[in-house]
């Protein structure tokens, strides 16, 4: 799974992305891209890559996201005052 | 109970006499202690401090920055803290630098005395008096020699900590996480329609009414908690997220929408104009609010929220949303 990321500082609202990828990107009243969902479905990945490649400001990137990791085991750190050795075992 | 303000000391000798010598801890020991203490950042984001340290500790030649740039016009607590307990802040900075193995250490937005006992020399960097100058990516840019403007990049090898957070780190290293859990206070700057505006140290959680009692609030309509990116609350509310501890009281005869419009005007003027939705959206939002075109206000709030490199538009959206709820009676 990939996510669209827009560098809002680099973007100056040329609007090419909304033409190349209308399924995911529309524009606001000032011409800047509006994305309702960052996630890029598999069947649109090629189109998303093309939009990123062709953005004249190179403001779009696709970032691979891994599925959420299983919840970590709760971990408690043993704290001891400075100078006293930590208990063993 | 004022564990932080009671630790005040003018010079190093007084500081050592009152607070004791700075303990030396192994890197993991400090981070573990911060985790157990549950300390969160006092710069506004309330993020767990130990996680920031742990993330930076694994990077190569990291940079540690103490952030004293108080962009919030109504906030005074960082300046006040540096005046009253500069050595506690410097202790926290040294401990943090040591815990992450810093290659350089900065103090941003203030001057500090150089102390002989410090292992890490501190470089002081001036901050401009703008709202966004204290935003963490702007701080990173500033110490890298660039203009102090927010950027799109987030860097794990640069650790930005608010000065109040650093002072608390120095206390946790001295007295331990269990002590801190019983002394978890924060500094609140109370201003607006109160008789005694100023900085107060209060325990968490705290009600809005408690802040008003301390500062002498009378006939209060609402209180803006968390500064210009915060929320309008009523005196009955409990403050779960104090942000950077700014509270601005509004008296019963003032208009909440008018005050919010003034603030949004100011926030629009403080946009660094780098991101389109913030550059165009905030002035449009201020204009719609001033004209009480509420349909347009609702739409613009949705259009600016989450659409900048930094949180300036999100914070503005949060403020306006809370005003629409709190002062619904003024326009319906």
Notable traits:
heterodimer, A: 89 residues, alpha+beta, three-stranded antiparallel beta sheet, two-stranded antiparallel ribbon, 2 helices, 17% helix, B: 332 residues, alpha/beta, five-stranded mixed beta sheet, 16% strand, globular
Provide structural commentary.
The complex is a heterodimer of chains A (89) and B (332). By secondary structure, chain A is of the alpha+beta class. In chain A, 17% of the residues lie in helices and 20% in strands. Chain A has helices at residues 16-20, 45-54; strands spanning 2-6, 25-27, 33-35, 39-40, 60-64. Chain A has a three-stranded antiparallel sheet with strand order 4-1-5, covered by helices on one side. A two-stranded antiparallel ribbon of chain A has the order 2-3. The longest helix of chain A has 10 residues, at 45-54. The relative contact order of chain A is 0.26. Chain B has 332 residues and is α/β, with parallel strands linked by helices. Chain B is 42% helix and 16% strand. Chain B has helices at 12-19, 27-37, 49-57, 77-84, 86-100, 136-143, 163-175, 177-182, 208-215, 256-269, 276-290, 294-304, 312-326, and strands at residues 63-67, 104-108, 122-125, 158-162, 185-192, 198-203, 206-207, 220-225, 231-233, 238-239, 246-251. In chain B, the strands form three sheets. Chain B has a five-stranded mixed sheet, with helices on both faces. Chain B has a four-stranded parallel sheet with strand order 3-2-1-4, sandwiched between helices. A two-stranded antiparallel sheet of chain B has the order 7-10. In chain B, strand 5 (185-192) and strand 6 form a beta hairpin. Chain B is globular and about 60 Å long. The interface between A and B is medium-sized, with 21 and 26 residues.
């Amino acid at each position: 799974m990939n996510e669209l990321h827009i560098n809002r500082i680099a973007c100056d609202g040329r609007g090419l992305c909304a033409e190349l990828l209308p399924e995911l990107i529309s524009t606001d009243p000032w011409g800047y891209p509006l994305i309702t969902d960052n996630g890029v479905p598999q069947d649109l990945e090629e189109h998303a890559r093309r939009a990123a490649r062709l953005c004249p400001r190179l403001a779009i990137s696709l970032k691979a996201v891994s599925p959420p990791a299983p919840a970590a085991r709760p971990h408690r750190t043993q704290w001891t005052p400075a100078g006293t050795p930590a208990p063993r075992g | 109970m004022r564990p932080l303000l009671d630790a005040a000391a003018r010079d190093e000798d007084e500081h050592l006499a009152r607070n004791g010598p700075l303990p030396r801890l192994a890197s993991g020991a400090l981070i573990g202690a911060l985790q157990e203490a549950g300390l969160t950042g006092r710069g506004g984001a309330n993020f767990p401090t130990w996680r920031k340290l742990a993330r930076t500790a694994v990077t190569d030649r990291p940079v540690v920055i103490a952030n004293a740039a108080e962009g919030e016009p109504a906030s005074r607590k960082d300046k006040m803290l540096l005046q009253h307990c500069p050595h506690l802040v410097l202790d926290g900075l040294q401990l943090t630098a040591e815990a992450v193995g810093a290659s350089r250490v900065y103090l941003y937005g203030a001057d500090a005395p150089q102390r002989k006992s410090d292992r890490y020399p501190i470089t002081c960097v001036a901050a401009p008096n703008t709202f966004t100058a204290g935003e963490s990516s702007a701080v990173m840019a500033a110490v890298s020699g660039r203009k102090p403007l927010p950027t799109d990049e987030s860097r794990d090898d640069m650790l930005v900590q608010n000065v109040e957070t650093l002072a608390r780190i120095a206390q946790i290293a001295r007295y331990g996480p269990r002590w801190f859990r019983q002394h978890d206070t924060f500094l609140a700057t109370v201003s607006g329609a109160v008789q005694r505006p100023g900085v107060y140290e209060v325990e968490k959680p705290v009600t809005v009414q408690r802040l008003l009692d301390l500062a002498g609030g009378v006939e209060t309509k609402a209180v803006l908690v968390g500064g210009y990116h915060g929320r309008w609350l009523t005196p009955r509310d409990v403050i779960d997220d104090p942000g950077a501890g700014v509270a601005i009281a509004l008296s019963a005869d003032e208009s909440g929408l008018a005050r919010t419009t003034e603030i949004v005007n100011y926030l629009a003027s403080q946009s660094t104009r780098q991101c389109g939705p913030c550059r165009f959206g905030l002035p449009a939002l201020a204009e719609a609010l001033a004209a009480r075109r509420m349909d347009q206000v609702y739409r613009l709030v949705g259009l600016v929220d989450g659409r900048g490199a930094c949180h300036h538009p999100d914070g503005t959206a949060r403020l306006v949303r809370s005003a629409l709820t709190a002062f619904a009676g003024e326009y319906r």
